[in-house]
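Reminder to self: keep the SMILES exactly as supplied, no canonicalising. Ligand is zinc ion.
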Amino acid sequence: MGQLVAFPRKKEDFALLTLKYLFFIFLINGQELSYPLYARVNVHLSDSKTSIGTLYFIQGQRSSPVIIRGNLAGLIPNTTYHGFHVHTSKVDDQRPNCTAANAHFNPFNRTHGAPVSTIDHRHAGDLGNIYADGSGKAAIFIADTIIRLNRPTGQRSILNRTIIVHKDIDDLGLGGQNDSLTTGHAGARLACGHIFSTTMTENQAFKTFLF
Ligand SMILES: [Cu+2]
Ligand SMILES: [Zn+2]
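C-alpha coordinates returned for the bound complex:
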Protein backbone atom coordinates (compact mmCIF):
# COMPACT_ATOMS: atom_id res chain seq x y z
CA MET A 1 0.00 0.00 0.00
CA GLY A 2 2.75 2.41 1.06
CA GLN A 3 4.59 1.64 -2.15
CA LEU A 4 1.51 2.36 -4.25
CA VAL A 5 1.05 5.71 -2.58
CA ALA A 6 4.74 6.41 -3.23
CA PHE A 7 4.17 6.12 -6.99
CA PRO A 8 3.91 9.45 -8.68
CA ARG A 9 0.24 10.13 -9.38
CA LYS A 10 0.85 10.50 -13.11
CA LYS A 11 2.59 7.17 -13.38
CA GLU A 12 -0.33 5.50 -11.62
CA ASP A 13 -2.77 7.07 -14.06
CA PHE A 14 -0.64 5.93 -16.94
CA ALA A 15 -0.55 2.34 -15.66
CA LEU A 16 -4.32 2.36 -15.25
CA LEU A 17 -4.81 3.79 -18.73
CA THR A 18 -2.53 1.13 -20.21
CA LEU A 19 -4.49 -1.58 -18.43
CA LYS A 20 -7.79 -0.14 -19.65
CA TYR A 21 -6.39 0.07 -23.17
CA LEU A 22 -5.17 -3.54 -23.10
CA PHE A 23 -8.53 -4.69 -21.76
CA PHE A 24 -10.30 -2.81 -24.57
CA ILE A 25 -8.06 -4.45 -27.20
CA PHE A 26 -8.79 -7.79 -25.57
CA LEU A 27 -12.53 -7.10 -25.73
CA ILE A 28 -12.60 -5.98 -29.33
CA ASN A 29 -10.63 -9.06 -30.31
CA GLY A 30 -13.65 -11.01 -29.19
CA GLN A 31 -11.71 -13.12 -26.71
CA GLU A 32 -14.02 -12.14 -23.92
CA LEU A 33 -17.29 -13.28 -25.50
CA SER A 34 -19.11 -15.78 -23.38
CA TYR A 35 -20.99 -18.43 -25.35
CA PRO A 36 -23.75 -19.09 -26.16
CA LEU A 37 -24.42 -15.72 -27.76
CA TYR A 38 -27.99 -14.60 -28.29
CA ALA A 39 -29.72 -12.02 -30.43
CA ARG A 40 -33.29 -11.03 -31.13
CA VAL A 41 -35.26 -9.15 -33.75
CA ASN A 42 -38.76 -7.73 -33.57
CA VAL A 43 -40.01 -7.90 -37.14
CA HIS A 44 -42.42 -5.21 -38.33
CA LEU A 45 -43.98 -4.45 -41.71
CA SER A 46 -42.17 -1.75 -43.67
CA ASP A 47 -43.23 1.72 -42.46
CA SER A 48 -45.12 0.25 -39.54
CA LYS A 49 -44.14 -0.15 -35.89
CA THR A 50 -46.56 -3.05 -35.43
CA SER A 51 -44.72 -6.28 -34.74
CA ILE A 52 -45.49 -9.34 -36.86
CA GLY A 53 -43.35 -11.57 -34.68
CA THR A 54 -40.07 -12.06 -32.87
CA LEU A 55 -37.13 -14.14 -34.05
CA TYR A 56 -34.40 -15.44 -31.76
CA PHE A 57 -30.79 -16.25 -32.64
CA ILE A 58 -28.33 -18.46 -30.79
CA GLN A 59 -24.66 -19.24 -31.47
CA GLY A 60 -23.48 -21.99 -29.16
CA GLN A 61 -19.71 -21.86 -29.63
CA ARG A 62 -17.09 -19.80 -31.41
CA SER A 63 -17.52 -21.60 -34.77
CA SER A 64 -21.03 -22.98 -34.33
CA PRO A 65 -23.81 -22.25 -36.81
CA VAL A 66 -26.34 -19.63 -35.82
CA ILE A 67 -29.82 -21.00 -35.25
CA ILE A 68 -32.78 -18.75 -35.99
CA ARG A 69 -36.11 -19.62 -34.46
CA GLY A 70 -39.49 -17.93 -34.24
CA ASN A 71 -42.85 -17.29 -35.84
CA LEU A 72 -44.11 -14.51 -38.06
CA ALA A 73 -47.72 -13.70 -38.91
CA GLY A 74 -49.37 -11.14 -41.14
CA LEU A 75 -47.45 -11.99 -44.31
CA ILE A 76 -49.53 -12.14 -47.47
CA PRO A 77 -51.55 -15.42 -47.42
CA ASN A 78 -50.89 -18.00 -50.16
CA THR A 79 -47.72 -16.29 -51.36
CA THR A 80 -45.51 -19.20 -50.19
CA TYR A 81 -41.82 -18.28 -50.46
CA HIS A 82 -40.32 -14.98 -49.40
CA GLY A 83 -36.68 -13.94 -49.72
CA PHE A 84 -35.09 -13.72 -46.28
CA HIS A 85 -31.83 -11.84 -45.82
CA VAL A 86 -29.60 -9.91 -43.47
CA HIS A 87 -29.05 -6.43 -44.91
CA THR A 88 -26.10 -4.26 -43.95
CA SER A 89 -27.44 -1.27 -42.08
CA LYS A 90 -29.52 -1.00 -38.95
CA VAL A 91 -33.09 0.19 -39.40
CA ASP A 92 -34.46 2.64 -36.89
CA ASP A 93 -37.41 0.89 -35.24
CA GLN A 94 -38.90 4.33 -34.49
CA ARG A 95 -38.80 5.24 -38.21
CA PRO A 96 -39.22 1.74 -39.55
CA ASN A 97 -38.60 2.13 -43.26
CA CYS A 98 -36.99 -1.08 -44.53
CA THR A 99 -35.19 0.73 -47.38
CA ALA A 100 -32.82 2.21 -44.78
CA ALA A 101 -31.24 -1.24 -44.34
CA ASN A 102 -29.37 -0.80 -47.64
CA ALA A 103 -28.00 -3.80 -49.57
CA HIS A 104 -27.42 -7.43 -48.57
CA PHE A 105 -24.80 -7.92 -45.82
CA ASN A 106 -21.76 -8.75 -47.96
CA PRO A 107 -18.47 -8.35 -46.05
CA PHE A 108 -16.49 -10.44 -48.55
CA ASN A 109 -17.79 -8.73 -51.69
CA ARG A 110 -19.32 -11.81 -53.37
CA THR A 111 -22.34 -12.24 -55.63
CA HIS A 112 -25.77 -13.23 -54.34
CA GLY A 113 -26.32 -16.94 -53.74
CA ALA A 114 -28.00 -19.70 -51.80
CA PRO A 115 -27.65 -20.33 -48.06
CA VAL A 116 -26.10 -23.72 -48.85
CA SER A 117 -23.38 -22.10 -50.99
CA THR A 118 -19.88 -21.67 -49.59
CA ILE A 119 -18.76 -18.31 -48.28
CA ASP A 120 -17.21 -17.56 -51.70
CA HIS A 121 -20.49 -17.94 -53.54
CA ARG A 122 -23.02 -16.04 -51.47
CA HIS A 123 -23.46 -12.87 -49.49
CA ALA A 124 -23.03 -13.55 -45.78
CA GLY A 125 -26.60 -12.30 -45.37
CA ASP A 126 -28.15 -14.73 -47.86
CA LEU A 127 -30.53 -16.85 -45.78
CA GLY A 128 -32.66 -18.03 -48.71
CA ASN A 129 -36.42 -18.12 -48.32
CA ILE A 130 -39.00 -18.54 -45.63
CA TYR A 131 -42.32 -20.23 -46.28
CA ALA A 132 -45.60 -18.49 -45.47
CA ASP A 133 -48.70 -20.64 -45.26
CA GLY A 134 -52.25 -20.01 -46.48
CA SER A 135 -52.92 -17.62 -43.60
CA GLY A 136 -49.67 -15.68 -43.97
CA LYS A 137 -47.88 -17.35 -41.07
CA ALA A 138 -44.27 -18.49 -41.21
CA ALA A 139 -42.58 -20.82 -38.72
CA ILE A 140 -38.84 -20.28 -38.93
CA PHE A 141 -36.10 -22.71 -37.97
CA ILE A 142 -32.86 -22.03 -39.82
CA ALA A 143 -29.28 -23.09 -39.02
CA ASP A 144 -26.72 -21.06 -40.93
CA THR A 145 -22.99 -21.77 -40.95
CA ILE A 146 -21.82 -18.39 -42.30
CA ILE A 147 -23.39 -15.73 -40.10
CA ARG A 148 -22.14 -15.08 -36.55
CA LEU A 149 -23.19 -13.15 -33.47
CA ASN A 150 -19.64 -12.29 -32.38
CA ARG A 151 -19.78 -8.53 -32.34
CA PRO A 152 -17.88 -6.21 -31.79
CA THR A 153 -15.25 -7.18 -34.32
CA GLY A 154 -16.64 -10.31 -35.94
CA GLN A 155 -16.50 -9.81 -39.69
CA ARG A 156 -19.55 -12.01 -40.17
CA SER A 157 -21.52 -10.65 -37.25
CA ILE A 158 -25.13 -9.77 -38.00
CA LEU A 159 -25.63 -7.75 -34.80
CA ASN A 160 -26.95 -4.22 -35.39
CA ARG A 161 -27.89 -5.14 -38.92
CA THR A 162 -31.38 -5.82 -40.29
CA ILE A 163 -33.47 -8.86 -41.16
CA ILE A 164 -35.62 -8.36 -44.26
CA VAL A 165 -38.57 -10.40 -45.50
CA HIS A 166 -39.20 -9.77 -49.18
CA LYS A 167 -42.47 -9.87 -51.08
CA ASP A 168 -41.22 -12.40 -53.66
CA ILE A 169 -39.19 -15.58 -53.80
CA ASP A 170 -35.38 -15.36 -53.75
CA ASP A 171 -34.11 -17.15 -56.88
CA LEU A 172 -30.80 -17.82 -55.07
CA GLY A 173 -28.85 -16.18 -57.88
CA LEU A 174 -30.07 -18.68 -60.48
CA GLY A 175 -33.00 -16.85 -62.09
CA GLY A 176 -31.14 -15.08 -64.86
CA GLN A 177 -32.87 -11.77 -64.07
CA ASN A 178 -30.75 -8.62 -64.10
CA ASP A 179 -30.88 -8.51 -60.28
CA SER A 180 -30.54 -12.25 -59.62
CA LEU A 181 -26.89 -11.89 -58.66
CA THR A 182 -27.45 -8.89 -56.39
CA THR A 183 -30.83 -9.44 -54.70
CA GLY A 184 -32.12 -12.80 -55.93
CA HIS A 185 -34.92 -10.86 -57.69
CA ALA A 186 -36.86 -11.04 -54.41
CA GLY A 187 -38.83 -7.84 -54.96
CA ALA A 188 -40.09 -5.29 -52.45
CA ARG A 189 -39.28 -5.26 -48.75
CA LEU A 190 -42.36 -6.48 -46.90
CA ALA A 191 -41.04 -6.50 -43.36
CA CYS A 192 -37.84 -5.92 -41.42
CA GLY A 193 -36.32 -5.50 -37.99
CA HIS A 194 -33.12 -4.51 -36.22
CA ILE A 195 -31.07 -7.48 -34.94
CA PHE A 196 -29.78 -6.78 -31.45
CA SER A 197 -27.71 -8.65 -28.92
CA THR A 198 -29.64 -10.04 -25.97
CA THR A 199 -29.29 -12.46 -23.06
CA MET A 200 -31.35 -15.49 -22.08
CA THR A 201 -31.52 -17.84 -19.16
CA GLU A 202 -30.77 -21.47 -19.93
CA ASN A 203 -34.44 -22.23 -19.37
CA GLN A 204 -35.63 -19.55 -21.81
CA ALA A 205 -33.12 -20.74 -24.41
CA PHE A 206 -34.27 -24.33 -23.99
CA LYS A 207 -37.90 -23.36 -24.54
CA THR A 208 -37.12 -21.00 -27.43
CA PHE A 209 -34.88 -23.23 -29.47
CA LEU A 210 -36.22 -26.69 -28.79
CA PHE A 211 -39.97 -26.25 -28.79
CU1 LIG B 1 -33.00 -8.78 -49.00
ZN1 LIG C 1 -27.64 -11.61 -51.32
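Points to follow up:
The pocket of copper (II) ion (ligand 1) is lined by residues 83, 85, 87, 104, 164, 166, 186 (CB under 6 Å).
The chain has two domains: 1-32, 37-210.
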